[in-house]
Amino acid sequence: MPHLHAAYNLARWLLRDDRNAEDAVQEACLRAFRFFKDVRNDDVRPWLLGIVRNACYDWLRQNRHLEDQVEFDEALGSGATAPAGDVGYADPLSMLDQKARAERINRAIAALAPAFREVIVLREIEEMRYEDIARIAGVPVGTVMSRLSRARAMLRHALREERPVTLHERTS
Prior knowledge:
By secondary structure, the chain is mainly alpha-helical. The chain is built from 8 helices and no strands. The protein has helices at residues 4-15, 18-35, 44-62, 92-111, 114-125, 130-137, 141-162, 167-171. The termini are far apart. Mean pLDDT is 80; it is low at 67-88.
């Protein structure tokens, strides 16, 4: 299952909870195995992610009362990397600034409505084509483009409003 990571990533972003994402991917895989013989090789990734998406939305419909109780933090546990150009030495303040910026972006993505969150995740994180996103979401390509444009605008707005002071500015 070369697309399992992408499936889990989409489920985690849609459900905003690791355990529920694992359950949704497992359910999606069970559904997918029943119909795998009918799929052509070039169609596997969007086909599987479509099933994952549907499993996530099924879970959200069944557990609507729980969906806002779980906080999702993508940056938790991820190691910060050295900024480009730093060879062998990572400036701790730069690493903290980078981690804070990633956390802000992840919070802004997590705050989007599921329809906007899914197109951002599929396009910007999974780097999928518009046509494949349209197949996964079951909407026309124009709708994908519209949702993506609106999602990007909402992210810009959310990130512009938050504008925190960087650690470099705090220590000056």
